[in-house]
Write a structure and sequence with these properties.
Structural class of chain B: alpha+beta
Strand order of the largest sheet of chain B: 2-1-5-3-4
Shape of chain B: globular
Helix content of chain B: 25-40%
Number of domains of chain C: 1
Chains: A alpha+beta (about 750), B alpha+beta (about 150), C mainly alpha (about 240)
Helix content of chain C: 25-40%
Strand content of chain B: 5-15%
Number of helices of chain B: 5
Largest sheet of chain B: 5 strands, mixed
Largest sheet of chain C: 2 strands, antiparallel
Shape of chain C: globular
Strand content of chain C: under 5%
Number of domains of chain B: 2
Number of helices of chain C: 7
Strand order of the largest sheet of chain C: 1-2
Oligomer: heterotrimer
Number of strands of chain C: 4
Structural class of chain C: mainly alpha
CATH architecture of the largest domain in chain B: Roll
Radius of gyration of chain B: 15 Å
Bound molecules: FE2/S2 (inorganic) cluster
């Protein structure tokens, strides 16, 4: 640890990391409970001779250890980020070990959300690799008494060009560690053509474990003496236990019953309360929970009914809202328009429903809490667990397992705090298991939304006015009782940043109160915004008697960076100067997709093509769908999807994310709906919250746009254009317009 | 005591005979490769083989295993090189990986009975397995590949 | 006569002969509509039929109907409350996939009959359904849980159509009258209808009353009710 030389400030200055203390190794939590398979972020030991960055160390045997501080949930960034670093380091991929980081602010943000892993850490990981490479070169040059410029790094060795002498990284590790860390400005990054891993398809590092059952997810954590807990949570958010008869449960061998504290104020990440059964194994816990007899006080949201609430949203959407972005004068332009067209769209609540439901294992002992969980955000978990236990953050260690999917659900650490609270009460390690029913009933739901759109068309079929009003309960309501309208950040998710060339534009929001916990779900508000926008353009094309593609192209307009004037666009946390809204890129993915789909070709009766394009998470994605309708039932035959996500690291994983986005998008378009009656969620399992299955899967054709642009999001931007492409195709096939999701509601699937 | 074989090894467990095999495997035999996804036979994350037939461990009482051969993903092949597992690697099927034990066990059961399945047969046999990450297209390709390789 | 839509691969002429000699001769023309049979809106898909919940009437309840043929029809209409109940028709589909719940929605996950009616390779009925109901997970089960052969498809049929099928050994599993009654009275999969587990609505009555109705229907000439008769319409 004497090798740890640079201060936090220096690190930030040198390699642009945005946060992070450098107390590497200060954490020395008890490891005996750690399942070896989790390969956690153990403190660097003597064999780790050289650790010039929080993300990297090199042992004397040459093993390169890369720390993965982001959560791996199927998006492949664990492999991708390591590849970025290892490529710059010029290390041998086969001699790399990847260790999952615990939650620690020294790594910078670990919130694996918003499709940020590659886009925010591509550059820091390149620099970390390049700095280390330079130091190894310097160390070798010193040993040989030659200039560093006469040496180069190559396949885990430094080579002296003139003499051909070579030294391995392991042999150089100690000497390199003794060097000052150079200024990052003095470091040269590899030119693109020298990159060996970046841009190449690379199998994910956990592939072998995943096909043999060895991969260890959150639910696979096993600790000696561990008990399993299930919780009967209040059916209505804000509800509490009125009466409890736990005698039958407590009569079961080894079962204990605990009543959790009632959360205070806005829900945030607090546990929901309720009654926990703690048992020797999962089956006993399941039986014990069912044996509880509980009556509930439902609290203020006991009357929540999604069908009635829908009316409320729709009424609001038809009244003037608060303008968020205004160009020209829409009212005036509508009056003068040759034709006017209006449409209302509705989309219901959704649940993320990752394949592995939420779960967590915690052990509170000797004044510390260790927890193992499939979390997208170990730092938030650390804070929430500390708050729940009354601990300091430093007393809490969050170990991140592999995630069996996340989709936003697992960035909310309520379930980890439940495990921690129970472990403290029980005095033993406790694993909290959420059943699928728990996952659907007690989630952080994707908002239900109503949108009202109006447009004016000129005599020659141009869109001269566009009013777009969106109404949905904001995610902010989960964190503040006062929040009552969509936030600016949410408005920026595919609406305020509308990229179209329309002279009169009004984007408005309306107020909506929440009666459930609202949370983010893969692509967030972009899903319903893209549905409304993509559908409405198709409607306008029909109204104007035009080809939808040509209208899309006209609305996108000439290649330019969209000027939003004074309006603040959240732009996924990036300045517009760095990541502008580039209509040229939008147009390119649209045209490429239209070409791939054979846009304009004759389709058989009952078949249709639909198209849509959307920018989100700084990436540009177009989707075309070919559908066939037989006896009133829809089948999606083919989907073409093109993404421009700037520079990408692992094309195979980008493709996989596009394939997955199509499936996720089709799932929500076909079946996605969470409903509430009397305050409680109706859906119980995959029987009534259906998701797409293999036999419904279309052929998926992915195209990746070559791009030198900055890395942009991949995990989420594929989802939003899927639904409108499909509903537009349905219209092309049948003349029937779908303005309400999911398609199952009207019996299309 | 309920006695059966798991991946070729004799085991005896002293548990509630109604306990689903899933929880017996995961909680009592420490075989966590078989996954929980729904607990009510909707998702296929828990598919194992009972005397060679694919069954859902979440709805199979452990008593049903008595005297029989249970095969889990851990025991599908000795070296992780069952043709289906090889094909899964070749096609880079997994994303998060969570559903894949069940997918592989279902696919292996299909191929054991139908060595060269058509797309339609794949649809029929794999409709019980959910993948939320959406790896279906590659699953289909991998099954065809495994079919060819097992020849 | 076998339905044109459902060719009967397992026709057994021998049985048909034996069965039909006794019974088919007694069939009265469909035009002989029983008085009092209402047009209660026959459910076209057979699935949406919701039973009245009244007790299943035994044969004795029909004693007042003097005419044998009318009584036969009425008793069959009563038995059809069982035959066309979702608990039964859900696994007597006219296509390759079972239905589920009282709404007779498509089975989730989608399953198909396979070559033997017991599911596809790797996705057999028995991969989830045990030989008994599971109380905790609610998965229904009974011995030899599987789909009825396609020639025994009842889903979406009227009582009359099912009646004709039951008399045709090519479409009733090759059963003669005694075997048919025996099957209705003792088969454990048939019995499941009265003990479906969880919160499923059972078929009305009890298995013996149902078998008695079938027996009595057969003994009164196995007359099929007219096209317009709905299940239980005669009771
Ligand atoms: S966990 Fe068994 S089928 Fe879902
Ligand atoms: S790979 Fe994630 S659920 Fe299938």
């Amino acid at each position: 640890m004497a090798l740890e030389k640079i201060s936090r400030r220096e690190l930030m200055r040198r390699v642009g990391w945005t946060a992070g203390g450098l107390t590497l190794g200060a954490w020395a939590g008890n490891l005996p409970w750690t399942p070896a398979a989790l390969a956690q972020d153990v403190p660097a030991d003597a064999s780790q001779a050289f650790d010039p960055s929080v993300y990297l160390s090199i042992a004397e045997d040459g093993t390169v250890t890369v720390i993965c501080h982001r959560s791996e949930m199927g998006q492949g960034s664990k492999t991708g980020l390591a590849a970025v670093l290892v490529d710059e380091l010029e290390a041998d991929w086969d001699r790399v070990e990847i260790r999952q980081a615990i939650g620690d602010e020294k790594y910078g943000s670990q919130n694996t959300d918003g499709s940020t892993s590659i886009r925010n850490f591509y550059q820091p990981f390149r620099e970390a690799g390049a700095v280390a490479r330079q130091m190894l070169i310097t160390a070798a040059a010193a040993q040989w008494g030659v200039s560093p410029q006469s040496c180069r790094a190559e396949a885990h060795q430094v080579v002296h060009r003139a003499s051909g002498r070579r030294l391995g990284y392991g042999d150089l590790a100690r000497a390199a560690a003794a060097l000052e860390i150079p200024e990052v400005e003095t470091i040269t990054l590899k030119p693109a053509f020298e990159q060996r891993l970046v841009g190449q398809p690379l199998p994910i590092v956990d592939l072998d474990d995943m096909v043999t059952g060895r991969a260890s997810f959150g639910l696979d954590v096993r600790l000696p003496g561990m008990k399993v807990a299930l919780i009967a949570r209040p059916p209505v958010v804000g509800g509490r236990v009125a009466t409890l008869d736990s005698s039958a449960a407590e009569a079961m061998a080894g079962v204990q019953v605990y009543t959790l504290p009632v959360p205070e104020g806005a829900p945030g990440f607090q546990p929901l309360g309720g009654v926990a059964v703690v048992a020797p194994d999962t089956w006993t816990a399941m039986r014990a929970r069912r044996a509880l007899v509980i009556t509930w006080d439902d609290g203020p949201h006991g009357g929540y009914d999604t069908e009635a609430y829908r009316q409320t949203l729709e009424v609001t959407a038809r009244q003037p809202g608060e303008p968020v972005r205004v160009v020209g004068n829409v009212d005036h332009a509508l009056e003068g328009a040759d034709q006017r067209h209006e449409a209302d769209y509705y989309a219901p609540h959704l649940a993320q429903a990752p394949m592995e439901p939420p779960c967590a294992t915690a052990h509170v002992h000797d004044g510390i809490c260790e927890a193992w969980a499939p979390t997208q955000n170990p730092q938030a978990a650390q804070s929430q667990v500390a708050a729940t236990l009354g601990f300091e953050v430093a007393q809490v260690t969050i170990h991140v397992t592999l995630l069996g999917g996340g989709f936003g659900r697992k960035s909310k650490p309520d379930f980890i705090a439940e495990a921690a609270w129970l472990s403290q009460e029980v005095g033993a390690p406790v694993q909290v298991v959420w059943t699928r029913g728990d996952d659907l009933r007690h989630g952080y739901l994707h908002a239900n939304s109503a949108q009202h759109l109006e447009a004016g068309l000129s005599a020659d079929g141009k869109v001269v006015a566009w009013r777009h009003r969106t109404v949905f309960p904001s995610i902010s309501t989960t964190f503040s009782a006062d929040a009552k309208a969509p936030s600016n950040g949410e408005m920026g998710l595919g609406l305020a940043d509308l990229p179209f060339d329309i002279p009169n534009l009004a984007i408005e929001r309306g107020e909506a109160r929440a009666h459930v916990r609202i949370g983010w779900l893969r692509s967030v508000c972009n899903i319903y915004h893209a549905f409304a926008i993509g559908s409405f353009i198709d409607e306008l094309a029909d109204r104007a008697g035009r080809d939808p593609l040509s209208l899309w192209q006209e609305l996108i307009g000439p290649a330019r960076e969209v000027d939003f004037g004074e309006v603040e666009i959240s732009n996924y946390g990036q300045p517009l100067t760095v990541h502008p809204v580039d209509t040229g890129r939008l147009r390119r993915v649209l045209d490429a997709t239209a070409e791939d789909a054979g846009w304009g070709r004759d389709m058989a009766t009952g078949s249709g093509l639909g198209i849509s394009v959307h920018r989100s998470f700084l990436s540009y994605v177009a989707v075309a769908a070919a559908v066939t309708v037989t006896a009133g039932k829809l089948r999606v035959d083919d989907v073409w999807i093109t993404i421009d996500c700037g520079t990408y690291v692992n094309p195979d994983r980008v493709r996989a994310q596009m394939e997955g986005s199509v499936i996720y998008g089709l799932s929500l378009a076909f079946y996605g709906a969470i409903e509430a009656k009397d305050g409680a969620i109706v859906q119980q399992n995959f029987g009534d919250y259906r998701v797409l299955r293999l036999h419904e899967t279309p052929r998926i054709h992915v195209r990746l746009m070559p791009s030198q642009g900055l890395p942009a999001g991949v995990g989420e931007p594929g989802v939003p254009p899927v639904t409108p492409a499909v509903t537009n195709a349905l219209f092309a096939a049948t003349g029937e317009r779908v303005r309400e999701l999911p398609l199952s509601k009207a019996g299309w699937v | 005591m309920i006695a059966f074989h798991v991946n070729g090894e004799a085991v005896r467990v002293d548990v509630d005979p109604e306990m689903p095999l899933l929880w017996c495997l995961r909680d009592h035999l420490q075989l966590t490769g078989t996954k929980y996804g729904c607990g009510e036979a909707y998702c296929g994350a828990c598919v194992i083989h009972l005397d060679g037939e694919a069954v859902r461990a979440c709805v199979t009482p452990v008593a049903k295993a008595s005297g029989r051969q249970v095969t889990t993903i851990e025991g599908l092949s000795e070296h992780g090189d069952h043709p289906v597992q090889r094909a899964w690697r070749e096609e880079n099927v997994p994303q998060c990986g969570y559903c894949q034990s069940g997918q592989i066990m279902s696919a292996a059961a299909l191929l054991a009975e139908v060595p060269a399945p058509t797309d339609d047969q794949i649809d029929q046999s794999m409709a019980g397995n959910v993948c939320r990450c959406g790896t279906y297209d590659r699953i289909r390709k991998a099954i065809h590949r495994a079919s060819q390789e097992q020849g | 006569m076998p339905s044109a839509r459902h060719p009967s691969p397992r026709r057994r002429p021998g049985l048909l002969g034996r069965f039909s000699k006794d019974l088919l001769a007694l069939i009265v023309p469909a035009a002989a509509v029983v008085a009092g049979v209402g047009l209660l809106g026959c459910a076209p898909n057979g699935a949406k039929h919701l039973d009245s919940g009244e007790p299943l009437q035994p044969p004795s309840a029909f004693a007042a109907v003097a005419d044998d043929a009318e009584r036969s029809q009425a008793m069959f209409a009563e038995a059809a409350r069982v035959l066309l109940h979702p608990r039964c028709v859900n696994c007597h589909p006219s296509d390759d996939s079972p239905r589920q719940l009282d709404s007779s929605r498509m089975h989730v996950p989608r399953v198909t009959r396979g070559t033997k009616g017991d599911g596809a390779a790797g996705l057999r009925c028995a991969s989830c359904h045990q030989s008994e109901n599971l109380s905790f997970t609610r998965v229904p089960g009974a011995p030899h849980w599987q789909l009825a052969p396609i020639e025994m498809a009842w889903f979406g049929k009227t009582p009359r159509e099912v009646c004709e099928q039951l008399k045709d050994p090519a479409r009733n599993g090759g059963r003669d009258a005694d075997a048919l009654v025996e099957h209705m009275r003792t088969d454990p999969l048939v019995a499941w209808g009265w003990d479906p587990g969880a919160d499923r609505a059972p078929v009305p009555g009890d298995q013996n009353t149902f078998a008695d109705l079938i027996r009595a229907w057969l003994d009164t000439g196995a007359v099929c009710p007219p096209d317009t008769t709905t299940p239980g319409a005669a009771s």
